[in-house]
Specification:
Elements: H1 2-16, H2 35-56
């Protein structure tokens, strides 16, 4: 009876310390920053405007 009790106790101790994995959703929303694309479009428009200005007025520079 004593070996059965000790095996049962050992089993309970080992199963009580088993790690658990929890998957939870984040509390804050995911933020995607798209400022790079917006700045790029502004720069392209500016460069096109400067190219047109230079082509119209050759004596500017």
């Amino acid at each position: 009876m004593k070996p059965l009790f000790s095996l049962l106790s050992l089993y309970l101790l080992l199963t009580a310390c088993s790690p658990t994995v929890k998957i939870e959703t984040p509390t804050e929303p995911i933020v995607i920053n798209l400022n790079v694309k917006i700045e790029h479009e502004i720069r392209v428009r500016l460069e096109k405007g400067v190219d047109e200005l230079i082509s119209r007025d050759k004596d500017l520079f």
